[in-house]
Predict the 3D structure of the following.
Amino acid sequence: MNSPVLESEEHQALRAAVAALGKRFGRDYMTRVTAAQGHPEELWAEAAKLGYLGVNLPEEYGGGGGGISELSIVLEELGAAGSPLLMMVVSPAICGTVISRFGTDEQKRAWLPGLADGSRTMAFGITEPDAGSNSHRITTTARREDDGSWVLTGRKVFISGVDIADATLIVGRTSDARTGKLKPCLFIVPRDTPGFTRHRIDMELQAPEKQFELTLDEVRLPADALVGDEDAGLLQLFAGLNPERVMTAAFAIGMGRYALARAVEYARDRTVWQTPIGAHQAVAHPLAQVHIELELARLMMQKAARLYDAGDDIGAGEAANMAKYAAAEACVRAVDQAVHTLGGNGLTREFGLASLITGSRVARIAPVSREMILNYVSHQTLGLPKSY
């Protein structure tokens, strides 16, 4: 897939450089790491060394001074090479963005340099067993003590990478003294904080990044664990969720591109009845459709990233949801068509596509389901009434 003509020379150069890094590692590397129950530490360290992990973070804290536009290029190209880094969605995109926009000077100094150079990582905890990602139903509560400290109690589920993260950015709710209602707030919870425990979820999906259920049992935190303004919780939350959706789109597009490339290569070489199977329209047309859908999804992703980087949070919210939806659908279709093109070979370990069948479904489910995105578009964009 060629670089879009809409990209600047700087973005095209970044895309080419990251693609070269991805090819040095590739799908075989990620498969070996996953099979060994390890983490892609070598790729993470190399990407950090080259400045790719912190490309969206402020220069004064060791970042590249770019935005989500640049970070999404990094993740997409690594994914297209078969070696995506899922923690990029969480650590620099969500947590790094929230801290850089709303954190105190002390929080920025403590976390941003490490997030930028890859020496520190941070997980993100919002999803709950009974609430999903519905911030209005989150039951994890934060109680302020007389000395200004906080006490958190609650549960989180399907939280990625907690075992390797130095801390988790937890979404809790505090009581609003004026209304008596609960409002969302974000807290930095170090990994080894007393009362903060994790239990690994046994997933059919095989990936280096493991999923965990978290329990916060009267977790006591200092006053400065609160990120930003207690009264601006929703604004700060969505400042992280919009980049998450853009980066999930990048993850899905990269995966779809990888699957499509394997299918195209096979269709060119595989010869049956003296003709490469790619010459037959029944094979060629579905692959062409997948290419078109991936290109369209990428354009929407770029629009969402640019709106966000320009400070248009409302416009970015709509576009980010659309981009995530389009990319997930294109990714699932690309993987399915790639496996179908290879036939029985598509299910072998040799070609590395079968595992993507499960992986591609994640983009439809997380961090928000396609149905909830359709709800968002029908209500917010089309102005249709809600059923809930």
User: Anything to note?
Assistant: The mean pLDDT is 93. The longest helix spans residues 233-269. The two ends are 41 Å apart (CA to CA). Strands lie at 122-125, 141-144, 150-160, 167-175, 182-190, 196-200, 211-221, 271-272, 275-276.
